[in-house]
Amino acid sequence: MSDEAETGVLEALQAALAAEQAAVYGYGVVGGQIGAQRLAEARSAYDAHRAGRDALAREVRDLGGTPVAASAAYALPFPVTDTATAVRLAAELEERVADVYSDLVRASSGERRGSAAAALREAAVRAVRWSGESVAFPGLAERAGPGADSGAAAGGSASPSLTASATP
Fold first, then answer.
1. Is the pLDDT at 68 greater than 50, yes or no?
2. Which of 57, 72, 121, 159 has its CA 20 to 30 A from that of 146?
């Protein structure tokens, strides 16, 4: 693998790691507001994102990088005050994670590409379960939708994680 390709893979791994960290934080918020009927689903997603975070941190270290640190807090895209907004946040978290994994699929090859594709699929399935909607190409919807800019359509990442915040 060339240095340039390895740098691209490392950048995509770091972006996926940051997205997983944001998802772990976001699911903490979801868990505080989700109704009892979907609490097990939220816990399962939380556990999956923690495992993804830990695996990505190992991969970054294996490539000689220092894993990007999680923020102490993240600004949520909207107030989460009840079950309905918790479900909406969970769907958005999954869509953002799928988006970043699509970048990792594109940047990598071999076993890493297969793992990234599996993570993309899992996030897309969770997004559909949370939202009740389906997307033809999960993780790419925001790139092809109305108003998508040419940079995003060409492969730039559109808002891969919640915004880091200095205060909770």
1. yes
2. 121
Instruction: Kindly state the helix (H) or strand (E) to which residue 39 belongs, with its residue range.
Output: helix 39-62
- H/E segment holding residue 139: none
pLDDT (tens digit, 9 = 90+) per residue, 85-127? 999 999 999 999 999 999 999 999 999 999 999 999 999 999 9
Residues forming beta bridges with residue 30, ordered by sequence position: none
What are the phi and psi torsion angles at 75 (to 5°)? Answer: -80, 125
Q: How many CB atoms lie within 10 A of CB 156?
A: 11
Question: CA-CA distance, 161 to 124, in Å (whole number)?
Answer: 15
How far is residue 126's CA from residue 90's CA, in Å, rounded to a whole number?
8
Which tokens in the block code for residue 85?
A: 């907004």
**Helices 110-131/83-107 angle, 10° precision:** 160
Residue written as tokens 């799928």? 98
Give DSSP secondary structure letters for 107-127. Answer: H--HHHHHHHHHHHHHHHHHH
Tokens of 60: 């970054």
